[in-house]
Amino acid sequence: MAERNYTRQLATIISIDAVGFSRLMGIDDELAVAAFEERRDIIADSCAAFGGRTFGDAGDSIMAEFGNPIEALRAAFDFQGRVVALNASVAEDMRMPFRAGINTGDVIVREGRLYGDDVNIAARLQEFAPHDGLAISETTWHHVKDKTAAEFTDLGEFMLKNIALPVRVLIAGRGGGSGASPAAPLAAISPAFSPQKAPPKGPPAIAVLPFAGNGGERDVGYMADGIAEDIIYGLSNTRWLSVIAKSSSFQFRDDSLGTRVIGNALGARYIVSGTLTRNGGQIRLNTSLADTSNGRLVWSQRFDRDLVDIFKLRDQIGSEIVSMLDKEVDRAEQARTFQVPWESLETWQLVRRGRWHMNRRTRGDTEIALDFFEKAYREDPNSSAVLNELAWWYFWRAWLRFGDSDDLDKVQQYARKALLMDSLDARPHAHLGVIDIMRGQPRAAIEHLKEALHINPSFAFARSAMGSAKLLLGDAADAIPFFLDTERLSPFDLYRFHNLGELAVAYSFVENWPAVIATADRSLNLSPGYFYARYLKIGALMRSGRADEARRELAIFETRHPDFSEQRVRWIPFADKSANEFLIANFELARSAT
Prior knowledge:
single chain; alpha/beta; eight-stranded mixed beta sheet; six-stranded mixed beta sheet; about 15% strand; elongated
């Protein structure tokens, strides 16, 4: 048996991490290293003064060991106060705050280094601490709670990475009105010691925090709050996401606690946050979506706008963000379903898995998608989410089959049942609208689509369908803004090629040939096999006097679509059939020139 060359002992570990070190390295690496070393010396000095020692420095992290939990807490308060004072003496963008996690437990000591779960717990705890703040475990809290004036706020239990059992996390602040104290939003978190709830069944919840208004101007703060409120309202209209109420999420104006802590307090899987800045007659909004389960950034976007009409600006930015967030959360949840055995998927997860296959747009994946949707339907035949996906599936097949009446009947059946389940869902209204479009009844379609957009103004599919209805009625100029709005609301939509194709048609009718060519090219870049976009481009090239290019495009068209018949274009249900003849004539110019 090998000789044991380590010992075990009870110890209190502080894990200390520099916040923003990588950012400062990107600005000035030599200055960042010097600033870190200066603060590291302060931390080492404070730890030594209270009977501890530092060990295991790695990058921008420091570990410290103490025999007494009370002395560890005092040392942490001491170096935090000294670092805060030092940071106050430098420019704001060059400050380097530190956060710390403290845990008490059994450790293995070998050659001066410490190992074990309790060391790892300390490292995980510091991720929960606010900037210049402390997070401690329940184990440490039991040792110090009655022997110090510190104040503690319980965050609840968390499962920490690579730690088998849940750990209760508390935020510690100086008591007695001096020094650092828990961040204000923590007052919103119940201090009761109740175990962390298991994740609720059903779709995930999303919380929109109040957007920060930079610049100190009151109107910027008002506008920032207004945009966040618009996003809450818009997300609630998507109907498949659970949205945390403003009265709860707006208590977290200070996001220094981090997404994992705030998400756990609110019961939200996703957190939306943002910062609004005004510079003269322009504003800039930076917004992001984070996954609270792992702290990772899912999506971020910057919006620059001229400040003209505040209310119109709020509507535009808010609707764009809602549309993008809807799709980004959907995409993230589709990927998450692959972490669950298919036989254990809940109904809403079956829908997300089916959507993942639908988005691949292959014949085989489309059939697999239907299998998932039908399985979800068998499990919950009254789910509006399931009914809407089935309506979409049959609409998509009807579109590919140029208006198959049996498929359209099924779309209508599922859409009407979905409306019975949820009359405030925009999706079934939109599905009923596109049925009317496919059946050559665009005026009837407009009524359904108006209702859909009244319920959810950010619904890009309904906006595109409204443009198509107006186009079929001969109102190309009125249709164009709807297609452009769709581009703004959903710039990365997988079915964007179709919207661009419709926009190219509208430009054809107003005889803006350069716009037809450019828009058709954008559609073809997304879906090279989309016959309609290339068909329109060929006609536009001929009308522009670019016959040689038109002939080259025609050769590609005939290779890709050898069975093409002009009946495909005659089928399009324009109210005035001269519109069909106009498009056909443009295309035939190229054929007659060969």
